[in-house]
Design goal:
Elements: E1 8-9, E2 12-21, E3 24-31, E4 36-42, H1 51-65, E5 75-81, E6 84-90, E7 94-96, H2 97-101, H3 108-127, E8 130-131, E9 140-143, E10 148-150, E11 157-158, H4 193-196, H5 203-219, H6 229-238, H7 253-262, H8 274-283, H9 305-328, E12 336-342, E13 349-351, E14 357-363, E15 370-376, E16 382-384, E17 392-396, E18 402-407, E19 410-415, E20 422-426, E21 433-435, E22 440-443, E23 452-455, E24 462-463, E25 481-487, E26 493-499, E27 511-516, E28 522-527, E29 532-534, E30 538-542, E31 548-554, E32 559-560, E33 565-568, E34 573-574, E35 579-580, E36 582-584, E37 590-593, E38 601-607, E39 612-620, E40 622-627, E41 633-640, E42 645-652, E43 658-660, E44 668-673, E45 679-685, E46 690-696, E47 704-709, E48 714-720, E49 726-733, E50 736-743, E51 749-753, E52 761-766, E53 772-777, E54 784-789, E55 796-798, E56 805-809, E57 815-819, E58 824-832, E59 836-838, E60 842-846, E61 861-863, E62 869-875, E63 882-888
Antiparallel strand pairs: 1-2, 2-3, 3-4, 4-6, 5-6, 7-9, 8-11, 9-10, 12-63, 13-14, 14-15, 15-16, 17-18, 18-19, 19-20, 21-22, 22-23, 23-24, 25-26, 26-27, 27-28, 29-30, 30-31, 31-32, 31-33, 34-35, 36-37, 37-63, 38-39, 38-62, 40-41, 41-42, 42-43, 44-45, 45-46, 46-47, 48-49, 49-50, 50-51, 52-53, ...
Helix pairs in contact: 3-5, 3-8, 5-7, 8-9
């Protein structure tokens, strides 16, 4: 209905029309009670009797009326005029974002400003359980003073978190069942893939639409646009969004990655909340339009200043908040939360005891090897700690002057002021450490070991806890691992995680324990399967739903009380190591990552000179590539981060197809081909034990269980004998790591090489002629490659010089390849017959491999039969940013 000037709708007098659209007509009106101008939107008379239009209009009124936020259109009143409902809202002066974009793209600074406001408005709606579902430039209004308002909640949907009445677990639209299951609602260019498919929409659906809007703001073109809506929807489902790399746009790589993270097709890979998105953008609010360097370089030792502007912005906000907390409100404890944005992967991290400095692990650009960086809170730069290539799981000295870490089979320490790291002890697959005030370090030297101690000068290494004595209450077997030790303030008592491998979530003995340096005390604090941290009064860890939770913790008695409280709805977790991405100091703050921070890699063909010949498949979290004997296929492990699981997959050597090979919910890894290419052996982590399985390479037959061992142990197949009758495997247990021969006929195991508890050996590779075995061992204190006879294991020769891992034979047995500690692929000529001689190894090229991260991550390359090409699991510079959440007073109410 057209309303003429002077028409009255209750206290509202129509002054002039403002516009019209499919969902209503908008008028300038005067509120006679308050004497102010308002906007009045009324459903057209022609649509009044169309129930769906009426329902959508009423839905919009109810949704917007429930919100009160400066970045959402304010609704003052609702009413009805001659059977037509109307809504009264604030009168805005300015223009829609669509009109602004019709003039061209926006500057980066303005895009960030608008983006922060939109994200904050969405966060307010999402907190009320309202999903917009139709975010687009036409529904965003920019006022004359630069404020952004979200309009038109006509397609809004309530989720169960809204606290309102619903009848479905997946949430209903505000007008019950307005949108039928499977129907498509929204505008094609800004619809998320789940909307296109008619699937359930949640707050991440709005984040995808935000990404499409932000992309258009930056480049002036839609991210998805076909000639018809159907073609546009197809693009949403299949097309890759180009990078914003045009130099004329001056878009920083960090902002580009934030936008592309919003546009991930898989909702689990997007920002999980608009609040996190707002934090990420806020951290960029001070960035100039100059393009930034994407990853921290290995040299020089300082990262580029432009890289750290983004982090400095977030840190300054955090410092301001902390000052406000300490100075203006000393008597109150308020929870405050900020974001730190890193353009690249940040994996392991640790806060200094006073909470002032973060040490973190990040891959180097050139080598891909993990390295340590220091970032002092409140400063604009980070510093590379030299000599820390291969670093993992860092931890601090009590006085914050040194950092200890694990690298290349060693526990080392280095001064934060710089210098050459000092070796303290030998380790293999270390799982955490802690440095106490008595200058003693406790650490877990391997995945299947107890907690050890060593003095900070490297003397007195000895075990503290005893796996044999730590009997599982449910099975009576020893626990499989003690790890993640953390000293309490007295420097004598410490916490650690003890439990078994596999998926035994109901195991009543896996959890956080308290012990002491004399090893006499062992008391369970809480059942869980997670690493942890504590501050002055709370213990933090990840629960079985991958949420970050806290428990009240009394430091004086080392006891917990109460029930877990959720601190974060999502925290990164690596199921193969039970590691949770969090760190906290006794004085706070808490820092955590909502993703597991797994490093991406891609299978890459290289020649002997190091020239890249091409990639196989897409980047992913990949382990253990193994070429089939005919070189046509490759078996590889792929980690599904959403499902927290790993399976063996088969891919063509050209990357033309990829198919899943194993399907159990348990972790299945380390596929090894038989010499005839017909069978693949692999390890499966069952709920009740570790299994060595065989399966036909066609994938069309049921797997065969060859051998089962307790879940306290690890068993990984390494290679087949040429006659196909035996498999050489690495068996790690509480008594050390050894090489065993598994009979294919009987499924029995016999020792091949046995190491002591302080030694490790792995990667047993039988030569093509079946006379020799190459393997890696740390028997002399560092990892080296050796050759012994097969099947008798009589005597040995050392192959490597200066360290080595991952030996592979050329198919004719004339060459052994291995990886040096600096990541360079080495080759050693072999002359064998009844005896064997090995030439001095020569370097080939820098692998830039994905650094191994678990006991099952045993190979990072394979070689063709002629030894001329190598398939390398190569580190890939990530196309996304890492966002760390920093929380002050994490356990306090928000």
């Amino acid at each position: 209905m057209a309303l003429g000037s002077g028409t009255k709708l209750g206290p509202y007098e129509i002054l002039a029309p403002l516009g019209s659209g499919g969902m209503g007509e908008v008028y300038l009106a005067k509120d006679s009670r308050l004497g102010r101008d308002v906007a009045l939107k009324i459903l057209p008379e022609s649509f009044r009797n169309q129930s769906d239009r009426l329902q959508r209009f009423m839905q919009e009124m109810r949704a917007v009326a429930a919100l009160n936020h400066p970045n959402i259109l304010a609704v003052f009143d609702v009413g009805e005029h001659q059977g037509s409902p109307f809504m009264v809202s604030e009168l805005l002066e300015g223009e829609t974002l669509r009109k602004a974009l019709d003039r061209g793209p926006l500057p980066q600074r303005k895009t960030i400003d608008y983006g922060v406001q939109i994200a904050q408005g969405l966060a307010a709606a999402h907190e009320k359980g309202i999903v917009h579902r139709d975010l687009k430039p036409e529904n965003l209004f920019v006022t004359k003073d630069g404020h952004v308002k979200i309009l038109d909640f006509g397609l809004a949907k309530l989720t169960p978190t809204a606290g309102l009445e619903t009848t479905s677990a997946e949430g209903l639209t505000l007008t019950n069942l307005l949108t039928e299951a499977g129907s498509v609602m929204g505008t094609a260019s800004y619809m998320a893939p789940e909307q296109v498919r008619g699937a359930t929409a949640d707050q991440r659906t709005d984040i995808f639409a935000f990404g499409a809007v932000a992309y258009e703001m930056l480049c002036g073109k839609r991210a998805f646009r076909g000639d018809t809506p159907a073609e546009t929807m197809t693009e949403v489902l299949k097309a890759d969004v180009p990078e914003l790399s045009d130099p004329s746009l001056s878009v920083s790589p960090v902002l580009d990655r934030i936008v592309h993270r919003c546009l991930e097709r898989d909702p689990a890979q997007r920002f999980q909340s608009a609040k996190d998105l707002s934090f990420a953008l806020s951290a960029l609010s001070g960035i100039s339009s100059a393009r930034e360097t994407a990853m921290p370089p290995q040299a020089p030792s300082r990262l580029p200043a432009t890289f750290w502007v983004s982090i400095a912005a977030a840190l300054l906000v955090a410092i301001a908040g902390l000052t406000w907390y300490l100075v203006d409100h000393p008597a109150k404890r308020h929870r405050m939360q900020f974001a730190m944005v890193f353009p690249g992967e940040v994996t392991h991290m640790a806060l200094s005891p006073d909470g002032s400095t973060l040490v973190f692990v990040s891959p180097g650009v050139d080598s891909g090897l993990p390295m340590l960086y220091l970032q002092r809170i409140g400063t604009p730069s980070a510093t590379l700690l030299p000599g820390t290539e291969g670093a993992s799981y860092p931890f601090w000295a009590p006085d914050s002057t040194e950092v200890a870490f694990f690298a290349n089979g060693k526990l080392e320490k280095t001064a934060v002021s710089g210098g050459v790291p000092q070796v303290l002890a030998n380790v293999s697959t270390a799982r955490g450490g802690s440095w106490g005030r008595k200058n003693v370090i406790v650490y877990s030297p391997s995945a299947g070991n107890s907690i050890w101690r060593v003095n900070a000068d490297g003397t007195g290494a000895a075990p503290v806890t005893d796996l044999i004595l730590a009997q599982s209450a449910s099975t009576g077997r020893p626990e499989g691992t003690h790890r993640w030790p953390t000293f309490l303030p007295d420097g004598n008592h410490f916490l650690f995680w003890g439990g078994n491998f596999g998926n035994a979530k109901d195991d009543p003995s896996s959890g956080i324990y308290v012990s002491s340096l004399d090893g006499k005390e062992r008391r369970l604090l809480v059942l869980c399967r997670s690493s942890f941290g504590y501050d002055s009064d709370h213990l933090y860890y990840g629960d079985d739903q991958r949420r970050l939770v806290s428990l009240p913790f009394d430091l004086s008695t080392a006891t917990v009380s109460g029930s877990p409280t959720i601190v974060g709805n999502s925290v990164g977790f690596q199921p193969s190591t039970f590691w949770t991405a969090l760190t906290v100091s006794a004085r706070g703050p808490l820092v955590y990552n909502d993703s597991p921070a797994a490093v991406l890699s891609a299978l890459t063909w290289m020649d002997r000179s190091g020239k890249e010949l091409g990639k196989v498949g897409d980047p992913a979290v990949i382990f253990n590539p193994a070429l089939s004997p005919d070189g046509s296929r490759v078996a590889l492990d792929i980690s599904d981060r959403a499902a927290n699981n790993v399976d063996v997959w088969l891919e063509s050597a050209t990357g033309n197809y990829l198919s899943r090979f194993t399907f159990k919910p348990e972790e299945e890894v380390a596929g090894v081909w038989s010499h005839d290419g017909k069978t693949i052996a692999y390890r499966s982590n069952g709920a009740t034990g570790t299994e060595l399985c065989l399966k036909q390479a066609t994938g069309l037959e049921q797997e065969k269980l060859l051998l089962k061992i307790p879940d306290t142990d690890e068993l990984l197949p390494n290679s087949w004998s040429p006659d196909g009758r035996q498999i050489l495997a690495t068996h790690a247990s509480t008594s050390g790591s050894r090489l065993e021969l598994i009979s294919i006929a009987g499924g029995t195991s016999t020792p091949f090489l046995t190491a002591t508890a302080s030694e490790e050996m792995t990667n047993g590779m039988i030569s093509p002629d079946g006379k020799w075995v190459a393997y890696a061992s740390n028997e002399l204190g560092s990892w080296e490659i050796y050759v012994t006879t097969f099947p008798s294991a009589a005597g040995k020769l050392q192959v490597s010089r200066g360290g080595g891992t991952e030996p592979r034979w050329r198919s004719d047995g004339k060459e052994i390849f291995y990886i040096a500690p600096n990541g360079v692929l080495m080759a050693a000529q072999v002359d064998s017959g009844n005896s064997i001689s090995i030439a001095t190894p020569v370097p080939l090229f820098q692998l830039r491999r994905r650094a191994p991260n678990s006991t099952s991550d045993i190979f990072s390359y394979d070689v063709t039969r002629d030894g001329m090409r190598f398939l390398v699991n190569r580190y890939v510079k990530p196309e996304h940013v890492t966002i760390l959440t920093v929380v002050l007073n994490a356990a306090a109410a928000q």
